[in-house]
Amino acid sequence: MAESHIHPPPGDAPVLSGNALKVLQSRYLIKDMQGNCIETPAQLFSRVASSVAQAEAKYGANRAEVKRRHKKYYDLMASLEFLPNSPALMNAQRRGMLSACFVLPIEDSIEGIFEAVKQTALIQQAGGGTGFSFDRLRPTGDRVASSGGTTSGPISFWRVFSETTNAIQQGAFRRGANMGMMSVEHPDILRFLDAKQNLEAFTNFNVSVKITDGWMRKLLKSPKTRHIVRNPRTGQRHLLPRRIDIASYTIDDLPKLAGRGKPASGRAGQFYTIADIWKMIVKCAHRTGEPGVVFIDRINRDNPTPSLGPIEATNPCGEQPLLPYEACTLGSINLAKFVRATETGADVDWPRLAETVKLAVRFLDNIVDVCNYPVADSVRLAQGNRKIGLGVMGFADCLFALGIRYDSAQGVEFGTKLMKFVNKNTRKASSELARLRGPFPNWPGSIWQTKEKKQVRNASLTCVAPTGTISIIADCSCGIEPAYSLVFVRQVLDGAKMLQVNPIFKQIAQQRGFYSRKLERQIARTGSIRELPQIPAEVRRVFKAAYDIAPQWHIRMQSAFQQHCDAAVSKTINFSENATVSAVDKAYKLAYQLGCKGVTVYRRGSRRQEPMTLY
């Protein structure tokens, strides 16, 4: 890249861990034609800050004010108190595409399908992730009037999207990521569930089943109700016979429902029930970690712009439900940076956190103006709704520093308090921006006008992302996840392995005199310190890792954050190797009962390759 992209930093250089430097050098810093880094981390943050500050001029800022904003945005990132999503770090003043999250519609026609394929390629080439719903596609074996033949169905076209991502990924700086969703009431739902059970297929897709409140009520109250599917092309309803071959059935194999829902023929017990479909979902999730479940009615009750249509899908990790063609930029505040010592122990520096939230909202709002969206319809919707996704990372580290157990009522109460504070201050900041710059253009008719009676700059403001790579840069725990382990091996895009040691645990262990390389290796082998008597009991009580924590506490924490979050929460519910199918069943139902918008589980060892492993 040309050296004109190199920006002198306007402030102190960031203090980075060895792993952070490795990741930045591998994937983020500008390189010359020989592959040598010609940019420092400080220059990277300056480049991003400069790009974001340019938006200020659109709203009347003079050169001195833009320069002052450049410094503030630089300090915000260089302090590692806040980082935007990866495309913003990689692409600022280069490719110019700064958003991570896109949802694309897939229309039920060859032209519509391959237009979406092209748009996917453009977005992923620039580093964005894409989400899709396959609901609109007619089922396998359905008639195609234009050719007189029949369609090969959603799964065959899903494969085209997956292969497109594989092709774009060749030599890419970021692994291509997709979310594929299908309604539980689509005729091809059995094929959809079965397809992802082959761990060699669709490796660049997460998948989720969309479930309505009505379907969940039947599951909980009358699970033996026959499961009814609906052809999206004709509206005709069908039953799923138990005798069909899941891999090869077509719509012609499914009996039609007539009148009030009675099949033309068939015995009791001949057809799949709602309980059967649920058991299949749960068994698949237990076996491979997929599908996740999305409670689509709950998502659409929080759709801020219902007059523009329903939300059909989310971004690849599920935290940002978006309209078709909509885009969103994410950013996360590193909570570990806001713990301060007090006379009685430690607390969050709430005033400083509020100021950081305010600055981060302005930063993300500016990105909407300077982002070079690769799809024209995304420009229209992104600028019309101006959605941003401000979230948090380093939550587990924050709890460690405060001496609070993750799996406790105190931990859940603190999570609720924290996200409520972030959400409240995010809305306050967006309202202040609306007074300065005007509300988002689609504000008329939005829930902000009709329900909240409030002008805001951004239609949606908060979500909790997984923060996989930016948490390595910030040297903190991911999102609101508990620590995977206090010592573990992280595998990154190029196959390199990095040893990750929790910095707060290491500091406390060194201060109290029980840290050693031998202990480090011991923890990396087991993933837990609960059986290590050389570690003080009060340390073992607080420093619990993901698999030390019962699944219900994972879900309770997700629910606590969801209560005060505009969009959704990316969270994995961890299970041990010997967890039962029944345990997964209970977890999925608890997530629904506690108000989560979606749920994803992972049973340790259920896949050969994992991004985080032990020795």
Description:
- With 615 residues, this protein is α/β, with parallel strands linked by helices.
- The protein folds into 2 domains: 15-100 and 315-615, Anaerobic Ribonucleotide-triphosphate Reductase Large Chain (Alpha-Beta Barrel), CATH 3.20.70.20; 101-295, Anaerobic Ribonucleotide-triphosphate Reductase Large Chain (Alpha-Beta Barrel).
- 40% of the residues lie in helices and 15% in strands.
- The chain has 21 helices and 23 strands.
- Strands 1, 2, 3, 6, 7, 12, 15, 18, 21 and 22 form a 10-stranded mixed sheet that branches. Strands 20-19-23 form a 3-stranded antiparallel sheet. A two-stranded antiparallel sheet has the order 4-5.
- The longest helix is centred in the last third of the chain and has 29 residues, at 409-437.
- The protein is globular.
- The two termini are 38 Å apart.
- The mean pLDDT is 94.
CATH architecture tag of the largest domain: Alpha-Beta Barrel
Number of domains: 2
Distance between the termini: 38 Å
Number of helical regions: 21
Radius of gyration: 24 Å
The low-confidence parts are none
The CATH topology annotation of the largest domain reads as Anaerobic Ribonucleotide-triphosphate Reductase Large Chain
The outline comes out as: globular
| Count of extended strands | 23
Main beta sheet: strand number and arrangement? 10 strands, mixed
Roughly what percent helix? 25-40%
Estimate what percentage of residues fall within beta strands: 5-15%
- Which structural category fits the helices and strands? alpha/beta
CATH class of the largest domain: Alpha Beta
Query: What is the averaged pLDDT score?
Result: 94
